[in-house]
């Protein structure tokens, strides 16, 4: 990198804002799984939006590519620089201010580097709820959640980050600042520009702050763990829950027996609620802001009808917060547990809810035909059709042999997903891992429109190059 650019960065940010020591750089140059590695001469750590603007303006003038990075908890390599050593990593981890909470409007305005759990806690302190919840909430940041349009376990009720975001502040590639921090529920004045930046993975600019929608705090909850024969039973069950509980349904998670087996084997403190084998499991949760809402009775009605229709093999209803936490631990421990079984090939797909049973059957068959003995870890959010279709090697298979077939196995999952009118990325984004393969699954006209938007905002191609958009 040009020494003059480095000197100017020091002038803008001061000693605390520039990381150049190789030992300190290391944590910014790899994703948390170690799946993607890059190099960079420097990491810039701006402390406010003005400094972000100065950095992007400088890089725009000098032709320096910028890789925005939040908590670096992504799974697709979207926040990792390439190996050229010429890119600048722009970390938002000093943009940590909560700018305000408005109880009347039920909004919270936060900067991009605020950790998701901190937002949840600030909302709770105000007697409100920020409902986004996911496994990395103790380390992922709001900027990253926005950049990837994060979903999590409560999408069935509250939606993704697109639905939870009212306004954003963005620094454009040339250093201009767009202050779109409007907390309005209605603003019918043309194109909704914020939606272009949400899910763009830092390829159009750097989101520096956002106005997020809050909801009434939850004061009643009812949770059940149920055993199922197959995914069709889950689809039928969620239909009953929606008809009976309506908007009080806040979580519906489906898990294969393989998923739960790994958790029970590797996650300390977990136990089988049934003590007997079942092919599939579901975790369903109802919640309400009323302290005395009759959720237990509603859940009893749901389970009673499901048993009458022979959808359930068994069921247990949580009695108290400790049991609720224990049931959720079985769901939330899957990703961690699978890592103990060797390489995990992760696929984050979505299909229409109605075709989940046929999709799972067809995809499992295709994967087992491609690699006999492969262990398929299927789990996800039935309420929005999002399944995490993760693969572990057959017992006894060499790690590198398994990794060498990652692209072939991914094609099996993606081809099947496309065949059922689904998407190959539900909530993790494209990053660098899916940027080329997406060209085979998106219509050419859609890719042309996306490239046109990129050209409009970033004609020099300096914002997170090599991510999201395929070459061509």
UniProtKB/TrEMBL annotation:
Its cofactor is FAD. Pfam families: FAD-oxidase_C, FAD_binding_4. The keyword Flavoprotein applies. Residues 36-217 form the FAD-binding PCMH-type domain. One of its GO terms (biological process) is respiratory electron transport chain. SUPFAM superfamilies: FAD-binding/transporter-associated domain-like (SSF56176), FAD-linked oxidases, C-terminal domain (SSF55103). InterPro entries: FAD-bd_oxidored_4_C, FAD-bd_PCMH, FAD-bd_PCMH-like_sf, FAD-bd_PCMH_sub1, FAD-bd_PCMH_sub2, FAD-linked_Oxase-like_C, FAD-oxidored/transferase_4, Oxid_FAD_bind_N. The keyword Disulfide bond does not apply. Gene3D superfamilies: 3.30.465.10, 3.30.70.2190, 3.30.70.2740, Uridine Diphospho-n-acetylenolpyruvylglucosamine Reductase, domain 2 (3.30.43.10), Vanillyl-alcohol Oxidase, Chain A, domain 4 (1.10.45.10). Keywords: FAD, Flavoprotein, Oxidoreductase. GO terms for molecular function: FAD binding; oxidoreductase activity. PANTHER family: BLL6224 PROTEIN (PTHR43716:SF2), D-2-HYDROXYGLUTARATE DEHYDROGENASE, MITOCHONDRIAL (PTHR43716). Belongs to the FAD-binding oxidoreductase/transferase type 4 family. This is FAD/FMN-dependent dehydrogenase. It comes from Actinoalloteichus hymeniacidonis.
């Amino acid at each position: 990198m040009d020494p003059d650019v480095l000197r100017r960065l020091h002038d803008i940010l001061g000693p605390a804002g520039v990381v150049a020591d190789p030992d300190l750089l290391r944590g910014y140059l790899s994703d948390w799984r170690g799946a993607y590695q890059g190099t960079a001469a420097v990491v810039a750590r701006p402390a406010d939006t003005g400094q972000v603007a100065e950095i992007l303006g400088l890089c725009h003038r000098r032709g320096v590519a910028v890789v925005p990075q939040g908590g670096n908890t992504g799974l697709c390599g979207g926040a990792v620089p390439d190996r050229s050593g010429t890119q600048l990593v722009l970390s938002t981890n000093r943009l940590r201010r909560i700018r305000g909470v408005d109880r009347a409007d039920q909004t919270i305005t936060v900067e991009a580097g605020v950790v998701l759990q901190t937002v949840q806690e600030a909302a709770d302190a105000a007697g409100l709820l920020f409902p986004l919840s996911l496994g990395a909430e103790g380390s992922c940041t709001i900027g990253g959640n926005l950049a990837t349009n994060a979903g999590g376990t409560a999408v069935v009720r509250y939606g993704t980050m697109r639905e939870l975001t009212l306004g954003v502040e963005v620094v454009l590639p040339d250093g201009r600042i767009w202050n779109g921090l409007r907390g309005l529920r209605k603003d019918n004045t043309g194109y909704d520009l914020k939606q272009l930046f949400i899910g763009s993975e830092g390829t159009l600019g750097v989101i520096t702050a956002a106005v997020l929608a809050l909801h009434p705090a939850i004061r009643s909850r009812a949770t059940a763990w149920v055993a199922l024969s197959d995914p069709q039973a889950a689809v039928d069950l969620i239909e009953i829950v929606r008809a009976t509980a309506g908007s009080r349904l806040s979580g519906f998670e489906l898990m294969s027996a393989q998923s739960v087996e790994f958790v029970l084997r590797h996650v300390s403190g977990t136990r089988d609620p049934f003590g007997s084998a079942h092919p599939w499991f579901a975790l369903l949760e109802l919640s309400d802001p009323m302290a005395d809402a009759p959720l237990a009775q509603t859940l009893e009605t749901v389970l009673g009808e499901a048993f009458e229709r022979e959808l359930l093999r068994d069921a247990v209803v949580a009695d108290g917060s400790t049991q609720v936490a224990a049931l959720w631990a079985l769901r939330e421990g899957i990703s961690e547990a699978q890592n103990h079984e060797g390489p995990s090939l992760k696929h984050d797909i979505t299909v229409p809810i109605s075709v989940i049973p046929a999709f799972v059957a067809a995809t499992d068959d295709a994967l087992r035909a491609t690699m006999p003995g492969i262990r398929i870890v299927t789990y996800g959010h039935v309420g929005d059709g999002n399944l995490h279709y993760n693969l572990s090697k057959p017992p006894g298979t060499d790690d590198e042999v398994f990794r060498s077939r990652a692209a072939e196995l991914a094609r099996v999952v993606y081809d099947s997903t496309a065949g059922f009118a689904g998407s190959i990325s539900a909530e993790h984004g494209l990053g660098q891992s899916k940027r080329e393969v997406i060209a085979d699954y998106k219509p050419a006209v859609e890719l042309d429109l996306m490239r046109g938007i990129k050209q409009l905002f970033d004609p020099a191609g300096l914002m997170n190059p090599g991510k999201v958009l395929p070459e061509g």
